Amino acid sequence: MDAEDTESFREFVRVRFEPLRALAYVTCGDWQAAEDAVAGSLARLYLRWHRVASPDAYARTMVVRAAIGEKSRPWRRERAVGDALPEVPVPDTSADVDERLRLQAALRHVPPRQRAVLVLRFLEGLSVEQTAEILGCRTGTVKSQSARGLDTLRAVLAAEDITLRGEEGEDHVVPRPGRIGVGAGHGAGAAHDRR
Question: Which pTM does this prediction carry?
């Protein structure tokens, strides 16, 4: 690799490292695994740098695949004794940050492949075709994984009784299943009438 290629790769890493790390984190739910996935992907990309036509798409594909695979590594399955202790989340005073934390926690309950589809489709804003290309599967698989992932995410959010805030500031409460509650403009009778 010549000096010009090396400099262009360094600039790419400077600009794209944090977004790739965030993508890996949302995909696997662990900062250390995310950093390992990005580091390994960038090391492999460096070796192919002069042959890759679209480095951003290539890196994103490699990072998502590595983040999915990183959770299945044997040393990732080992658990320290401290992992048995419950984590007590400390909510931020900012409603947006609190909302993001709850959604990230809910995403951790979605299986890795479905989580990857949801992240690529809805957080990265990729099309079904682009997502299928990155994950190396068919568009029908992306659609079914997306539907199943969204169903799982909805169920987790419903079990958590989470309030989602819309763009215009309106609140939408997702109550626990089987619970009749008053919220989001519905009276107790309205919840009963939907059955």
Answer: 0.52
